[in-house]
Amino acid sequence: MANRKTTKTNTRKRKVRKRQIKKNALKPKEIRFCLLFAAEEDCFGNGTIAYQKAFSTKKNPVSWISAKSSAWRLLQKPAICERINKYLEEMALNDQF
Question: 71, 77, 79, 94 - which has most CB atoms within 10 Å?
C-alpha cells in the first residue's frame, strides 16, 4: 500500500512540474511581441503597437484599447520581461526593464 501512495504522489508531482514548465514557456506570438517591443524601431518601448503588430491578423485586427490592456498584462509576466531584457542586452541597451 505504501508504494501505491508514493507512486501516485510522484505522478502528481511530475504533472504539476510539467504544467509549470508549460506556463513559463512563451508562445511564438509572445516571443514576437518581445522582439518588436525591444528591437523594432516603430514600436520600441511601446507595448500597444508591439502587441497590435504581433497579434493582429488581416481577418482579426486588434483594437487599440484591447492591445493596450493586453500589452500591459503581458508586460507583467516575468518570462516576458526576462526575454525583453535578453534582447536589450544583446543590443547593449539594457538598464534592466
Answer: 71
